[in-house]
Amino acid sequence: GAVVSQHPSRVICKSGTSVKIECRSLDFQATTMFWYRQFPKKSLMLMATSNEGSKATYEQGVEKDKFLINHASLTLSTLTVTSAHPEDSSFYICSARDPGGGTTEQYFGPGTRLTVT
Amino acid sequence: GNSVTQMEGPVTLSEEAFLTINCTYTATGYPSLFWYVQYPGEGLQLLLKATKADDKGSNKGFEATYRKETTSFHLEKGSVQVSDSAVYFCALSGGSGGYQKVTFGIGTKLQVIP
Predict the structure, then answer these.
(1) Hey, which residues 25-54 in chain B have their CB within 8 Å of chain A?
(2) In terms of DSSP bridges, do strands B44-50 and B32-38 run parallel, antiparallel, or are they unpaired?
(3) Which residues contact B111 (CB under 8 A, 6 or more apart)?
(4) What angle do CA A42, B38, A109 make, to 5 degrees?
(5) Where are the beta strands (DSSP E) in A1-117?
(6) Which residue of A has its CA nearest to B48?
(7) Which among A92, B63, B84, B109 is placed 20 to 30 Å from B42, CA to CA?
(8) Distance CA A109, CA A35 (A)
(9) Cross-strand partners of B64
(10) Are the CB atoms for B93 and A104 separated by under 8 Å?
């Protein structure tokens, strides 16, 4: 099946710094990728839809200047958490659908655990 | 819009017990339905899926049947193992939300004790 990877798997940063998380589709091209955030003991919350070659679409309540998304190629989307604060600590997961796969299935990355100290 | 409601956990069972995790959904049209599993410290893995009414998805002993009349997709397993301990998410895509967007339930934590 299709594989989505994320890097890094874990990152610890100091308050006020920025952190970049990468999401890659390894064996398919994804014109659209999705970024989710998972709070402890909660479900996944869709943050934004990343579109290759155009601006990301953010869900209501998500600060686009805080969470910068760049989808520079058909296999790579990046999420940059700018001026991170402890409340940004969370588990971030990306996903992508393989448009050539013939299914509606989304493939999820393994997630990135961000801790802001 | 689309929504998914699933039972809140945690659910604690003894090994070899029967498992049911309830899931109901709201969507227009004909969404695809999924169960995802998240093991501790890991991302989501697709467990099973069903794309049309009366389809039964199955994998690793887990089953779920797409019931359009009751808008349900309950997850069942006849005999759970300790290794099944994880969080299970019911989800859907399609319908009014389009196939690009996945709507998740809150997740149900399952703990299986020896």
Answers:
(1) 32, 34, 36, 41-46, 49, 51
(2) antiparallel
(3) B10, B11, B12, B13, B85
(4) 100
(5) 4-7, 10-13, 19-25, 32-38, 44-51, 57-58, 67-73, 76-81, 90-97, 106-108, 112-116
(6) A105
(7) B63
(8) 10
(9) B57, B75
(10) yes
- DSSP for A48-68, please give it: EEEETTS--EEPTT--TTTEE
Tokens 């710094």 belong to residue: A17
pLDDT tens for each residue of chain B, 114 residues long: 788 999 888 999 999 999 999 999 999 888 999 999 999 878 888 999 999 999 999 999 999 999 999 999 999 999 999 999 999 999 998 765 555 678 899 999 999 999
Bridge partners (DSSP) of residue A38 are A44, A91
Which chain A residues in 30-89 lie under 8 Å from chain B, judged by CB atoms? 32, 34, 42-44, 46, 49
Give the Cα separation of A69 and A20 in Å (integer). Answer: 9
What are residue A47's phi and psi, to 5 degrees?
-95, -50
Main-chain dihedrals φ then ψ at residue B25, nearest 5 degrees = -135, 160
